[in-house]
Amino acid sequence: MADEPIPAVSIRGLTKRFLSTLALDHVDLTIRRGEIHALVGENGAGKSTLIKTLAGLYTPDEGEIHIDGRLVHPGSEDLPIAFVHQDLGLVDELSIGENVALVAGFPKSGGFISWRRVWSQTRDIYATMGVEPPDPRALVGTLSAASKAVLGIVRALSRKAGIVVLDEPTASLPGPDAEHLFDILRRLRASGTSILYVSHRLNELFGLADSVTVFRDGRHVSTNPIGALTTDAIVRDMLGRDLEIDHRGAEAGGGRPLLLEVEGLCIGEQGPFSFTVGAGEVLGLVGLRGAGHEAIGRTIFGARRQEQGTIRLGGDVIPADLGIAGRIARGIALLAGDRLRESAISGMSLRENLYPNTANVGGRAFLPIRHDRETAEAARVLDRFDVRPPDPSALIDWLSGGNQQKVFVGRWLATGARLFIMEEPTAGVDIGAKGVIHRMLRDIAAQGAGILVISSDFEEVASLCDRALVIGRGAIVAELAGSALTLDGLIARSSTGAEAAPSVS
Ligand SMILES: Nc1ncnc2c1ncn2[C@@H]1O[C@H](COP(=O)(O)OP(=O)(O)OP(=O)(O)O)[C@@H](O)[C@H]1O
Prior knowledge:
Bound molecules: adenosine-5'-triphosphate
Organism: Labrys monachus
Strand order of the largest sheet: 6-9-10-3-11-12
Protein name: Ribose transport system ATP-binding protein
Keywords: ATP-binding, Cell membrane, Membrane, Nucleotide-binding, Repeat, Sugar transport, Translocase, Transport
Family: Belongs to the ABC transporter superfamily.
Structural class: alpha/beta
GO molecular function: ATP binding
């Protein structure tokens, strides 16, 4: 049709194979100018492969990419696309201004870097985006997750690209902080920028995206305007079936024997925190950035120094100076939120990642490793968690982010611990797998373990936990349980308790 405007991006028949995996199978995708186009799909659907192909990191086996009507070859030419990858690629040891300059360029004066202009360039870029600029001299390592996400976006946009691709920018952002990002994206759209937005949080697409494309197993399944969609319809396309809703056990509240007792715990300026977790209970600790909830889990695990207060597990006091190994031996497990840095054993197989310690599969340390037994057990865990590929000999590095997360959760559940501290257990995990992980956590709790979910995903806490404590300004500001534990309740209590006006800058 002659009058049809030329799309910003037109992808036709894109195909990418990795050995036996067909990660993209002749997919088509059209992104119009000035639209927010959401791309969703289960873990392993091919979303990241598409983004990495656009970024020129992978060369497609077949297919064509047109930008503004022109056939392009990513990787061999500079394209007007800005990428915000899941791993934001920021350098913690450098200042905000230097991180911006790594992408935007270091302004020079008389052949030397002009630091005055490095700082003012950063302030200007933030201001154009309508975001209150932080001190450009501050080290990135001191920023919260939300501020880093904003910086990642601000920095990418400093290239003034007409197309922006964001890969799960809200995976570890609390709802109110994510809203600030959405404002930035809406402003960009209004200025004519086209946005490809990958997310597993389907609810956030309503009110943000204009159209939604669903991939399944490397194939394009559907593209629809958001107005024609419901969450259920998106999920049906993603899974190829209806979702089994995993309802939380009704028996919230008391009557359980105490498993964990925390009394007067102080961490730096934060605290004192006092609370309990019953055997069989799933307790959520939620909060906005800087609220201190993550530090509590890390202190119980021994990864942070326990300065004051008492921690009891099963009635026994855990000595304050007991290290991580001693705490693991007593039955405390921690799933770290930063899974790539703290959980993955790169270059090793799924079996080795599941069983880094042979004692986990009914063996004893120092006995020869029983590969056959581990392989059989690993295959069972991979199958139970619907990990793709379910092959114990596959390298962890080959798996999509969400499938890696399922392996790490499986690893800890296999240790037979009594208390599981789970930081953001389903960040980056698709909605089908989220249900599987939640069910596994509930099963483990039903067998008498206690679960402490440290999360900024309020929806997850509302649906998974029996009870939740809202942490704000270094103290417990609210406790919600049973029918009072709802998404709205959590948002209301956290925004009044933690930071009166949450800000991302
Ligand atoms: N470098 C690689 N080597 C081998 N296989 C790969 C590689 N990268 C991706 N794959 C495989 O390609 C498929 C698509 O993966 P991709 O990372 O694109 O999925 P995704 O939709 O981004 O998933 P997630 O939501 O979990 O991030 C998966 O089966 C994955 O295991």
